[in-house]
Amino acid sequence: MLRKVIFGFACFLFGLSLTAQDTIKGQMKPVKEYSWVILYQLKGVHQQYIANATVDNGKFELVIPKGKETGMYRILYDNKKNLFLDFIYNHENVDVVFHPDYPSVLAEYKKSDENKFYQKYLDVISEDFNALDSAQVAYFQVKNDDSDNELNAFYHKKLKQTIATQKDFENQAKEKLAYHFVKANNRYYARNLIKETNQYMDTLRMHYFDYIDFNDSVLERSSFFMDRIIDYITYLHTSNYAKKTNELQKKAIKDVLQKIDKITLKKDIIESFLFMYAQQENKEITDYIFKNYYNKLPLNLQDAEFKVMIKDFFKTTIGEKAPQIAWDVYGKKYDLYSLPENEYYVVLFWSSTCSHCLKEVPKFNTFLKEKKNITTVAVGLESDESKADWKELTFDLENIKHHVLGLGKWQNKYSRDYGITGTPSYFILDKDKKIIAKPYDLKALEEFFEKESLKKESKPNNEKAKNESKKNN
Asked: How is domain 326-445 classified at the CATH fold level?
């Protein structure tokens, strides 16, 4: 009888293990005014939605459904500033305390063997890497033999220690998912310090990807590849001159893509390049990537909608005429280009479902109270379910003269025309409806108009000084 009871209890426990769900507990320290978090599974440059949760006094809890594959996951809590915490998931509970402004460097894992181990590795190896880098920088400035010998001795000793530390962590990580990231995080260091900065930079570029396996499926399902590639291009291929930087980065893009055999991974990285340079409004490199890489992909991998989206970014570069917006109010038609003439116009994109908007847009409305020289058109990116809330909120935004309902949210025509990827988003136009600024947030918008006001105040004084000078002459 006892044997049956034990067997039954064992079966019960086994059944629980099959249906168990893992929890992700987080706490932000210090507590910031974040009200929600979203959990994504990273799949290379793409991310798959898993769950969401509310934040209460900086704390939240998420559940990963059973059966989800291991890999890198992301907790997103600030879409506008793109703030998130990435962590390794290997079928275990995760409990983490992190600084919301510096999530990648100030995170402490209370639970999760994988993440505790990887964080410990990063803390230790980063100190070693920093020591070696500092020695190299100091070596560039050495002017006597004694300091030269002293630095070389320190460097050789530290390099030997770092190699041993890296190898030790790799051996410890063999049975962990973290092994893939530990191994790929290794760096190449020359056996001896290098005297010339140009030679040093050439060496860095030559060996930058020595420890990265672009066929590693675990790394592919993370942000690791893209983070390293972006660092390689932007850190190691820059110049004081824009034209020279473009040439260097074109070559760097070519070098990176030659290392990647898997066509789907190559396609994802090319699209990431296009998105990055489009956001920077760098048309030269965007056109270069389309012509030399994207348009040469197999036709079944080319995304027509993606091409349109990238080209839409350039509709709103500084100096371009703002894309038209048309709407009607109780049957009366309006559009951006037929509004009464004013000194400035602001096109605002927001949403009643965006927590940042609900805090920032009322403040923007207050800012507009005494600004008679600014006309605002606010496009609410809404769904059928949220349009009633949007309508109600507009009644309290009396200083925003024109409200436009943008159904379809991100797929709305005006959202696409203006290349909107987050809300709230502001565009400042001059009297001719040319885009003259794209402030990051309300504070930047206020600073823009403050500077404009100061320019106007100083202009009469400048004119007066010129006139006085003419009289004296």
From this structure: Glutaredoxin (3.40.30)
